[in-house]
Write a structure and sequence with these properties.
With 138 residues, the protein is mainly beta. Helices cover 0% and strands 46% of the residues. The protein folds into 2 domains: 55 residues, no CATH class; 69 residues, Immunoglobulins (Immunoglobulin-like).
Length: 138
């Protein structure tokens, strides 16, 4: 029999992708109901950092590194010079400067700009760990 004050840890994850949605810590006296979860999700005992872990086959699994690389870290801000990101997994989402979203389907992402400054690129393709690049345009 468990103690009503015993702390319990549960993680709710997407049952299709394994992506961690949220984690909860509760005791029996908190009136928490771990069965009250969003449709299409499941629960696993324990808590892991979703930036580093996902659930695969009902088991916490370390997210693999992102395989993408850039051919350079500086471009001319002339609208013609291009940075090329290779080895981009299919269906990767690329968020540029927190306001432009692109979807990559062919393994390559190219970018040019007429705006000088530091440009941020966030590559997301679950289950790989998100990868961030900064490219300077001058």
């Amino acid at each position: 029999m468990s103690d009503a004050t015993e702390t319990r840890h549960k993680t709710v994850y997407d049952s299709t992708t394994g992506e961690i949605i949220f984690s909860m810590t509760y005791t029996a006296t908190d009136n928490a109901d771990p069965s009250d979860i969003p449709p299409g999700s499941a629960v696993i005992d324990g808590v892991k950092n979703p930036a580093e872990w996902y659930v695969n086959g009902g088991v916490f699994t370390k997210r693999p590194d992102f395989p993408t690389f850039a051919d350079k870290d500086t471009i001319l801000a002339d609208g013609l010079d291009v940075v090329r990101f290779d080895n981009v997994p299919s269906n990767t989402e690329v968020l540029v400067n927190n306001d432009q979203l692109y979807k990559v389907t062919d393994g390559v992402f190219e970018y040019s700009t007429g705006n000088p400054g530091l440009h941020r690129f966030l590559f997301k393709a679950h289950p790989a760990v998100d990868q961030e690049f900064f490219i300077n345009a001058s």
